[in-house]
C-alpha cells in the first residue's frame, strides 16, 4: 500500500519516517517521499512536492500527489493509477490500437476510466459519435473532474456520456451494441471493486454480446515484466483466448509504474494491420499527433520477449471469481 515517509531520518538517500516509521496519507499535508509496496520485499518511492488532496469513497481510498519526478499522480487504494508526465503512454496504448483496428468506430463503452484520460484519447478520433464512460465510483469521477485539468475538455465534450454504475449491471441493461469496449478498470486486487470484471463469464456473457459484428474488446492487464507478468497478465490473456478467436497481447514501459505494463486486445475478426496501415489510419482519423504510439511502436509493443511469450503460450489458468488472481496489494474491503 502507498505510504508517506516524513523528513525525519532522511540522509544519503535512506528513506525513513518519524522515529523510523512510515505514515499513511491521511492527516499529512507536508511530506518528502511517497512509497508504494510493489511486492513483499520490494518498494518503489519518489520525492513529493506536496499532497494535494486525499479522500475516500465507499469503494476506494483516493489521493492526488504532486511528485517531483512525475508531476501530479493519482493514487487509488495505495496503487499509483496515472502520473502527469507519462500517462499518455498508458492511455495511447489502451485506446488507439483497438480503435485503429476497427474499420470505422462510432460508439465506445469504457468500463472504469473515471479520471477521463481514456475518454480524452477516444474523443480525438474523428469517427466517434458517442462515448459512454461507466465508473462505479462517483467520488473518483468528481475528484478527477476537479483536479485533473488536462481532461476538463473531454468531460465537457457533448459526445461523452458519464454513467455512475457497476459496468456489469450497465452493460446488462443497455440495448445498444458497441464498436469497441474498453476495460479501463483499476487493477484486480484483493478486496478491490473490479476483479470480477476480469473473469471468463463476464467476457463471455456480458462483454462479447454487446460488441457489434467485428467489434473489439481491449483491457488493461496489469504488470507485464519478466517477473511480474505471471501475476495477472498471462491469465487474462489466456482467459480471453477462451472467448475470442483473435487475441493480441502487448506491453510498454511506464516509468512511474516502475515496470512494463500489459494490455490485451481481442476480437472475432482479425487484428493484423501492418505498421504502415496503422500509420495511415492515424493520419486520417486522429486529431493531433500521438506522443508515443505509431505503427512501428505497436509492432514492437506486440512483440513480447521470449520469456513472456513462453509463459503466455503455456498458461492454463482461466480467471473466474472462484479462482481469481490478484496483483500484490489489497483494496479497501479486503
From TrEMBL:
This is thermospermine synthase. NCBIfam families: MFS_SpdSyn (NF037959). Residues 31-268 form the PABS domain. It holds the Pfam family Spermine_synth. It comes from the Eukaryota. CDD domains: AdoMet_MTases (cd02440). PROSITE patterns: PABS_2. It comes from Glycine max (Soybean). One of its GO terms (biological process) is polyamine biosynthetic process.
Amino acid at each position: 500500500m502507498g505510504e508517506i515517509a516524513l523528513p525525519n531520518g532522511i540522509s544519503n538517500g535512506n528513506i525513513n519516517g518519524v522515529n523510523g516509521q512510515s505514515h499513511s496519507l491521511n492527516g499529512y499535508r507536508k511530506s518528502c517521499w511517497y512509497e508504494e509496496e510493489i511486492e513483499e520485499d520490494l518498494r518503489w518511492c519518489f520525492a513529493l512536492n506536496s499532497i494535494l488532496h486525499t479522500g475516500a469513497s465507499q469503494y476506494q481510498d483516493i489521493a492526488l500527489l504532486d511528485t517531483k519526478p512525475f508531476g501530479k499522480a493519482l493514487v487509488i487504494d495505495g496503487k499509483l493509477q496515472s502520473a502527469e508526465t507519462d500517462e499518455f503512454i498508458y492511455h495511447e496504448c489502451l485506446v488507439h490500437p483497438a480503435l485503429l483496428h476497427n474499420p470505422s468506430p462510432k460508439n465506445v463503452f469504457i468500463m472504469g476510466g473515471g479520471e477521463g484520460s481514456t475518454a480524452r484519447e477516444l474523443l480525438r478520433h474523428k469517427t466517434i459519435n458517442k462515448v459512454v464512460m461507466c465508473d462505479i465510483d462517483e467520488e473518483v469521477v468528481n475528484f478527477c473532474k476537479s483536479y485533473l485539468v488536462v481532461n476538463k475538455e473531454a468531460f465537457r465534450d457533448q459526445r461523452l456520456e458519464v454513467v455512475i454504475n457497476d459496468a456489469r449491471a450497465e452493460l446488462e441493461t443497455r440495448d445498444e451494441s458497441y464498436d469497441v469496449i474498453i476495460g479501463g478498470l483499476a487493477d484486480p486486487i484483493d478486496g478491490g471493486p473490479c476483479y470480477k470484471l476480469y473473469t471468463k463469464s463476464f467476457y463471455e456473457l456480458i462483454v462479447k454480446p454487446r460488441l457489434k459484428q467485428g467489434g473489439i474488446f481491449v483491457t488493461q492487464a496489469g504488470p507485464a515484466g519478466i517477473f511480474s507478468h505471471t501475476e495477472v497478465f498471462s491469465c487474462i490473456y489466456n482467459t480471453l483466448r477462451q472467448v475470442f478467436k483473435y487475441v493480441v497481447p502487448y506491453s510498454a514501459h511506464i516509468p512511474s509504474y516502475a515496470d512494463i505494463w500489459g494490455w490485451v486486445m481481442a476480437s472475432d475478426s482479425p487484428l493484423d494491420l501492418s505498421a504502415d496501415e496503422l500509420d495511415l489510419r492515424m493520419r486520417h482519423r486522429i486529431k493531433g499527433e500521438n506522443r508515443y504510439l505509431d505503427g512501428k511502436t505497436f509492432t514492437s509493443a506486440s512483440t513480447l520477449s521470449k520469456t513472456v511469450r513462453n509463459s503466455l503460450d503455456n498458461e492454463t489458468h482461466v480467471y473466474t471469481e472462484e479462482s481469481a488472481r490478484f496483483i500484490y496489494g489489497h483494496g479497501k474491503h479486503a
